[in-house]
Amino acid sequence: MTDTENKAVISEWQVINLRLTTFYDDTMPLQFKQNEWFREVAGEDAETTITRRDLFQQEGNFGEGRLILGMPAMTIPQRVDWFYVSPTGLGNPFDNLENAISKFVPIMNKWLESSFDTMRIGLGSVSLLPAKDKESAYKQLASYLLAVKLEPDSSDFLYHINHPRRSKTPVEGLDINRLSKWMVSLSSEIGLSTASVRKNFSCLLETDMNTSAQYQGNLPKNHYAAILNELVTLTQEIVEKGDVK
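The chain above was modelled as a monomer; its predicted structure follows.
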């Protein structure tokens, strides 16, 4: 089997979470809008709200999972995070990556249009590709990392890299960070009736596509949708093709 044949299509990757992150200068009055955003995005009120000195967070049902709005306090620059996660917990897959992106990105585009001017936009994902055993997982991983020599009997492997690119949007001088982290993950299931332990191996991929902090000032608001769509395209490229420059 060739490396190309060994790659999976994007719909075979199971998503653990998606994240949109935006950054703002410290003059933006985010606190005056924070109680409105969840309803505007999800179409209904949040089920839970946490208000602490160091954090504002709201959470509720959305699509196949849960939508979380998080605003950590006392950060410079100010930061807003939106997470789309499993209804049973942050570490569990809940949909295929292609479907999750198609549900999450449109509501994030809508929110960006109505939100404050932002300095940076980032799109993150964590997803896994199940394998039948450890050797199969490393063989699968090797097909995505052609610059790395991986053997099926490898172990404790972690590959983390950034391949920045100049943005193809009309925003002049904008660079995009393209971070990816690759590894083989192991989870265990304990059978209640037999007390047996089943080991589940997967290729685990974390991506973080974000506009460079070197860009001066706020991003042009009329290009937010183009920027986010580019971040989606770059995410899909890495998922489908692997570690490409």
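The two ends are 24 Å apart (CA to CA).
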